[in-house]
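Progress report, Aim 2. The chain analyzed during this reporting quarter is listed below.
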Amino acid sequence: MAPSPAKRPTKMKISNETKIGILAAFAITLLILGFNFLKGKTFFGKSHTLYAKYSNVQGLANSNPVMINGLQVGTVYSITPDKSMKQILVNMTLTKDVDIPKNSIATINTDLLGTKSIVIHLGDATQFIPKNDTIATEPTTGIFNEILSKFDPVLGQLKHAVTSVDSVLGNFNKILDPSAKNNIGAMLENLNKTTANLITASASLNVLLNTQTGALAGTLNNLNSFTGNLSKNNDKINSLVDNLDKTAGNLSKLELEKTLNTLNSTIGDLKTTIGKLNSSSGTVGLLLNDTKLYNNLTATANKLNLLIDDLKTNPKRYVNISVFGKKNKSTGLTVPLPDTVNAPYTKQ
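Predicted structure tokens for the chain:
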């Protein structure tokens, strides 16, 4: 008998239903993981939960960021209100390992685009909030409500100002009678004339201030030239000032007071001398004031002139050098010669 063939091992077949079930479970797992990841829940990194209670979440939603000092440290995981809707519990997942002081405060913030976020304002306590604990909160009114609240006092003051202006205008209308209106018209006409004059003056001022042809430009050019000359002659000016300083120093060194005292003493002596000359007590005073001395001097001068004339006329009476001549025995002159003009003889 021939041997029977050996049996081959049979492979286990997986049905299509099983494959679909495994694929569906895998897809559901990925969906759950992705949904939790989008909500901020991490499965492989370090994260912890922090709770906050609000009476009004102002439109806060899941996956909104949690910020500390401008840095996102987590997201909002879930928002759970109580049955009375008076208190809403917000579950935050912090993905960064941060230490939050116990006196920190979490507020809901709204930016200009309307995006909500939770902002944690760090306190200064030395103890930190443990994980899975609750942080203190503070209600906020939102950015637009805050802006409107700041404008409310201004609007109130503006309303009061408008009321005051209305009252002033009413009183002003009561004051304006026809004569006052005419006066106001005349005043406005004068104001127009004044405005026209101002325009003319402005044109003249523009001509004056013209940087090319204006008088002020010429003056500034002259001033620049003058200052340029001063700058060029700066050394000479410094030398002149030094010379003046030296001259002033030399003058200050002079014994001016002593010189003035000497001059005063000399003037006093001169006065005394002039006084003695004017008086007749001294010799010089007698010479100046006594007419007898003048007359005697005049007579002496006349006699001297007479003697000189006689010497010129009869020299032989005084000098005789002739051996054979005769001695002149004529009488002398009694009157000077006529050519003596500058010293006329005065008869006694």
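The longest strand covers residues 71-81. Helices lie at 16-38, 143-175, 178-208, 215-232, 234-253, 256-278, 283-289, 291-313. These observations will guide the mutagenesis work planned for the next reporting period.
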